[in-house]
Design goal:
Blueprint: E1 7-8, H1 16-26, E2 40-43, E3 50-51, E4 62-67, E5 70-76, E6 84-86, H2 87-93, E7 97-105, E8 108-116, E9 119-122, E10 125-128, E11 131-135, H3 138-143, E12 150-152, H4 154-157, E13 160-165, E14 170-175, E15 185-188, E16 190-192, E17 197-204, E18 207-214, E19 221-223, H5 225-231, E20 239-244, E21 250-258, E22 261-263, E23 266-267, E24 271-275, E25 286-289, H6 290-293, E26 296-301, E27 306-311, E28 326-331, E29 334-340, H7 345-348, E30 356-360, E31 363-364, E32 385-390, E33 395-399
């Protein structure tokens, strides 16, 4: 999230219901009922775990599903009201596009078009009929190390159970009402309308906070302003972080580190808390994302109002914070600086948004650095002096250090 790339944020369509409502209002009274997503679910009694895609590269839940006979990678996103298919895939499948509407989102609006589908298969669960949204997801796919072309939304996820085994990096789609396995600690899950909104209690500083569950976000925690003021010490070291919104735009959020969060009595370890820029985005007191939930085995059954977590044999470590403060995109043409974080060594060294860095300590930056030790040069050690070569000429030295 902070290791040189822009954070994905969610829910991807946090007020999609408003977009649907507006489109329905524009329709005749006879057509309004057509905005309800109606479909049939069937269940295969043979339940098998299937691999998560690129689980070693990011915390998101991405796995294969079948849409109209095509196997495609899908992101599970409880924060997205309905299932969305990338426009390029929709064209390949020959989906017939219907009514367009705009859905509200962080960073602007996203243009969505309705399309009916024949069949969607996830594990042993088959959905027949209903409609999906079609939208351009290329910006999200480019920003994520885990490729996907479908967002499997709350319209589907609110009707089934899902179990995630982090040690085997696998996932199973189950019939609602299935009991979680041994070792899981359960808690109540609230499913509210409109939009099949998932939320659970999360303890922060010993205080219970009602938080939306957003499996489409790779962030840790988000707090709305009243809770931020109450739970983040006034003298806490803070910075800002750029996030990619569903509308394709960037926006900044204040970020600080918390040490006292817990779910179902299990501590989550250090977590980065983001200050919500818009209270309406959360529909609760905060958001818990996959940056935290990926540290546990996870069981979700919103239809039965149950969530459960269990410690893993090999717990995921909290995200290492950047010690330079550059958020950007690594390409074969260098590191494109999208945002220089406040109070960071990069800011102190005079680096600016929009610059491009071509070398680190004299070595050319390439896409091959992604996911390698070379690509982790931003993480330390503290006190190391790094020489960055600007693509336009000249160099700048930064001294790595923790700054939040």
């Amino acid at each position: 999230m902070l290791n040189g790339r822009i954070r994905l944020t969610g829910p991807l369509l946090f007020i999609a219901a408003a977009g649907i409502a507006q489109a329905a209002q524009a329709s005749s009274a006879a057509d309004k009922d057509s905005w309800t997503i109606r479909y049939h679910l069937s269940f295969d009694r043979k339940v098998a775990f299937q691999p998560l895609i690129a689980a070693d590269k990011g915390p998101l839940l991405v796995t294969e599903v079948e849409l109209n006979g095509r196997r495609v990678p899908a992101l599970l996103d409880t924060g997205c009201e309905f299932t969305i298919v990338d426009s390029a895939l929709a064209k390949e499948l020959g989906l017939h596009l219907g009514v367009p509407f705009d859905a509200g989102a962080y960073g602007g609006k996203i243009h969505v078009i309705r399309a009916d589908i024949d069949k969607l298969v996830a594990g042993g669960i088959t959905r027949t009929g209903g409609w999906v949204g079609v939208a351009d997801l290329s910006a999200f796919d480019a920003a994520s190390p885990q490729h996907f072309s479908i967002i499997l939304g709350a319209d589907f996820l609110s009707q089934v159970a899902v179990e995630v085994d982090r040690d085997s990096q696998s996932i199973a789609f189950l019939r609602s009402g299935t009991r979680p396995g041994a070792g899981f600690k359960t808690m109540p899950l609230r499913l509210s309308q409109p939009g099949n909104h998932f939320s659970i209690p999360v303890s922060v500083g010993g205080r219970p906070i009602d938080m939306s569950i957003d499996t489409g976000s790779d962030g840790d925690l988000t707090l709305v302003d009243p809770n931020w003021a109450a739970l983040v010490p006034a003298d806490a070291a803070t910075t800002d972080s750029a996030s990619l919104g569903a509308g394709g735009g960037l926006y900044l959020q204040t970020i600080a580190r918390l040490h006292s969060a817990a779910i179902a009595g299990l501590p989550v370890g250090d977590a980065f808390a983001y200050r919500a820029a818009d209270h309406s985005a959360t529909r609760s007191e905060g958001i818990v994302g996959m940056g935290v939930l990926s540290r546990f085995d996870l069981f979700l059954d919103a239809h039965a109002r149950v969530m459960a977590i269990a410690p893993t044999q090999n717990p995921a470590k909290p995200t290492d914070p950047t010690m330079v403060g550059i958020q950007g995109e690594t390409t074969d043409d260098g590191l494109q600086v999208i945002h220089v974080m406040a109070h960071s060594p990069a800011e102190e060294a005079g680096l600016k948004d929009g610059e491009r860095i071509c070398t680190v300590d004299g070595e050319k930056i390439t896409t091959a650095w992604k996911g390698t030790p070379k690509g982790k040069w931003m993480l330390g050690p503290a006190g190391k002096v790094v020489t960055l070569g600007r693509c336009g000429g000249g160099t700048v030295q930064v001294t790595l250090r923790p700054f939040y």
